[in-house]
């Protein structure tokens, strides 16, 4: 039993190592290489660097891995006081979604490998996945930042139990629908140049998923199914369920990235429903003017939540 757990643990660690990007080099002279900001790459050498040689920009060749023939413009190179950390500044912003191949010539006098070092710089992939999920969940919440899915949001946020049930159901629907949409887009629509049909196909997949959830929920939890009422059917026309597959297709996300975006969107909708239902339950006992009772005060509360979530805009975690 213990041996089996160790094996599973080892596999998980290996998967995490593969998911985490960094510097890939056959030369031990490079200790670390990473993106810094929008327009910089920082390279840490194991040996001291020639302080005079770094001013010769022709010693540095940087390209994106998919386009090895296009050299990126370098604005300048600086050396840290420790003599081992080199910062390469570029004229334009770097595309962190693509691995970059860096070739450095004759910077380290003590290097016995011939003076030319080539290595690959990639994004911190696990952090990138978490940033996709947290971005969709909080920073760019689809309800409070993009104002999508408001019909179901206001309709099922009166009670906490209904709100949590709808949030979980919605998360399951959006994950399954998004993964199926990604699969069909990558292996059917895109290869056969049927991209213009993506909205119709995505709506059909969402309808199929909602129908499946409807059937299961009717048998498993009839009380929750009755509480949802017509709003479960409205999930089919929910803007968020359609928006996520379109974002996946536009950004060319892979399957793991698609899953993280769908999970973040679903959890973000669950958070929005829970927060809204908590306030609306308290509003039932508040002295609200007659003209503001019901949806008017709900719209005001949603606006206040949207203002609060604006504080997360522009935040970068990884």
How would you describe the overall organization of this protein?
The chain is of the alpha+beta class. It folds into two domains: about 20-125, Sandwich (Immunoglobulin-like); about 130-310, no CATH class. It is about 50% helix and about 15% strand. The protein contains ten helices and nine strands. The chain has a five-stranded antiparallel beta sheet with strand order 1-9-8-4-5, with no helix packed on it. A four-stranded antiparallel beta sheet has the order 2-3-7-6, with no helix packed on it. It is elongated. The chain starts with a helix and ends in a 9-residue tail after the last helix. Residues about 1-25 have low confidence and may be disordered.
Report a brief summary of the structure.
The protein is built from ten helices and nine strands. It is an alpha+beta fold and 318 residues long. The chain has two domains: 105 residues, Immunoglobulin-like (Sandwich), CATH 2.60.40.1220; 181 residues, no CATH class.
């Amino acid at each position: 039993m213990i041996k089996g757990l160790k094996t599973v643990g080892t596999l998980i660690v290996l998967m995490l190592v593969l998911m985490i990007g960094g510097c890939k080099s056959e030369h031990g002279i490079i200790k670390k290489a990473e993106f810094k900001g929008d327009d910089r790459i920082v390279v840490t050498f194991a040996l001291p660097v020639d302080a005079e040689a770094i001013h010769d920009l022709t010693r540095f060749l940087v390209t994106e891995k998919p386009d090895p023939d296009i050299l990126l413009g370098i604005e300048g190179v600086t050396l840290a006081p420790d003599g081992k950390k080199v910062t390469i500044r570029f004229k334009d912003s770097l595309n962190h979604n693509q691995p970059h191949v860096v070739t450095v010539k004759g910077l380290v006098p003590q290097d016995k490998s011939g003076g030319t070092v080539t290595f690959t710089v990639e994004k911190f992939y696990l952090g990138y996945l978490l940033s996709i999920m947290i971005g969709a969940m909080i920073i760019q919440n689809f309800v409070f930042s993009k104002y999508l899915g408001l019909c179901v949001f206001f309709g099922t946020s009166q009670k906490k139990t209904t709100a949590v049930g709808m949030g979980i159901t919605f998360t399951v629907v959006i994950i399954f629908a998004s993964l199926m949409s990604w699969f069909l887009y990558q292996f059917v629509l895109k290869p056969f140049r049927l991209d213009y049909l993506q909205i119709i196909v995505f709506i059909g997949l969402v309808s199929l998923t909602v129908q499946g959830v409807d059937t299961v929920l009717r048998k498993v939890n009839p009380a929750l199914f009755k509480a949802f009422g017509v709003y479960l059917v409205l999930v089919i026309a929910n803007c968020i369920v359609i928006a996520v597959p379109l974002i996946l297709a536009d950004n060319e996300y892979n399957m793991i990235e698609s899953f993280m975006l769908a999970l973040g969107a679903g959890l973000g909708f669950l958070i929005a429903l829970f927060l809204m239902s908590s306030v609306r339950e308290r509003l039932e006992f508040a002295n609200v003017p007659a003209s503001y009772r019901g949806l008017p005060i709900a719209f005001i509360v949603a606006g206040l939540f949207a203002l609060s979530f604006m504080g997360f805009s522009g935040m970068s975690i990884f």
